[in-house]
Specification:
Layout lengths: L4 H23 L5 E8 L39 E8 L3 E5 L6 E5 H4 L5 H28 L6 H39 L8 E4 L1 H50 L4 H10 L5 E5 L16 E5 L11 H5 L1
Antiparallel strand pairs: 1-2, 1-5, 2-3, 3-4, 6-7
Helix pairs in contact: 1-3, 1-5, 3-4, 4-5, 5-6
Length: 313
Amino acid sequence: MGLERGQRASLAITLNFVAFAFAVSAVTTNYWCEGTRKVVKPFCTGPVTVRQWYCIRFNSSNINDSRLVQYIWESGEEKFLMRKFHTGIWFSCEQAADMNGFDCRDFFEIAPEHERGVLWLCIVAELLYVTLLFMGGILMTVEQCPCFSVMNKLKLNAFAAMFTALSGLCGMVAHMMFTTIFQLAVAIGPEDWRPKTWDYSWSYILAWGSFGTCMGSAVATLNRYTKTIVEFQYKRRNVEKNMRIKQKLLELDLPEQMWDMYLTAVPAGTEAHLDLPDTVPVNGRKPPSGTKYMVGLDNVPDLYLGRQGEEYC
């Protein structure tokens, strides 16, 4: 079931601002990827009265006394700790040594050195994506103002569709570049960062969800533009056909009320038959009873004077 012009405009604007909200949420958060790192437990410091699972405790708190035999309780996998981490395009955060809170560092320090230029391009593309998406939404909103003419609204619609489509392309490229950089960092990144397990997180899902809704908004806007142009051209052709029929009837010296009645009774076409009454003279002579006239539309001068804008309105 088709949508009215106003409904299509509302759908495009809604999709645009949903995509913008998703994009801002994804870019400003650091949960594009998350996982765990397998690290050796640090030694417990200070007096320890109870056993702590996140650090290695000696049997005696006086570790400086060389006369005491020191041993630890942990063995095998108990010596290791699985710390959670999450990463975005700005920072990578890992659980602190005491498992309370997160310690963050710049993702540029983690990305391979030869890929840092690509990371810069990724950030620039993400910012372009958000900016162009916002500009497209503003143009869609301004287009709904009744103070603009039909032609001006059509121009705004075209620019809104162009900005939205370009923003979607920038977003797709930026997301793919970050995916590549992160996978390279997992493979050849710093030893003290490489994760044991990882997967994409909710920020990454929001980023691609934003791309999907952005392209949906672009398609809806282009659909409105295309349908308006098609309607415009269809009405223009109808006006041209009616003007040609009118001119041909005037060449036959028919009274005005006759071609007015014909144009309202007979749809516009390539040719038509007229049954003229006996009392209507043609070129000063009375035609025989039952005479039919052929009105052809070929080789007729184009009398359409460029009033398609007024006819469309």
